[in-house]
Amino acid sequence: MNVAVNRVDEKCIVFRSRSETLLIMAEKPMWEQIGAGFVQHYYQQFDSNRVLLADLYTEASCLTWEGLGFQGKNAIMEKLTNLPFQKIQHSITAQDHQPTPDSCVISMVVGQLKVDDDPVMGFHQLFLLKNIDNKWICSNDMFRLALHNFG
């Protein structure tokens, strides 16, 4: 039997042969669902009301923002709520998620952001997500603007 993949999308894979069509539902792996859900929620909160991000961090959480380190919910929120802009909008262009051996999820995000009236800038952000008491929190968070300084 000669079978070819005819179409692949996020929800299904369609295999076709001369005599039959087979539709297989392909759910995303759990870690991808967790990572993608977290990323969507995080940037919606960041863009609308950064104060709400506090629920995503714990006292053990760490943030590295443009090379500067912050540990604990209070220090992280102090940094995030005092960033020097009034308005921000993120646009995610790619995201990848992986499970870790200790049941965490690593999420890497690439995108663009627009701050106030400044030009659009690229950014990279990495999250390590951990399940504590049936709630996914951000254990580690690393952020960098995608700027190149060759000088």
From TrEMBL:
GO biological process: protein import into nucleus
Top-level taxon: Eukaryota
Matching InterPro entries: NTF2 (IPR045875), NTF2-like_dom_sf (IPR032710), NTF2_dom (IPR002075), Nuclear_transport_factor_2_euk (IPR018222)
Record-linked CDD domains: NTF2
Domain NTF2 as annotated: residue spans: 34-145
Alphabetically ordered keywords of this record: Cytoplasm, Protein transport, Transport
Subcellular location(s) per record: Cytoplasm
One term under GO cellular component: cytoplasm
UniProt-listed PROSITE patterns: NTF2_DOMAIN
Protein name: Nuclear transport factor 2
Organism: Acipenser ruthenus (Sterlet sturgeon)
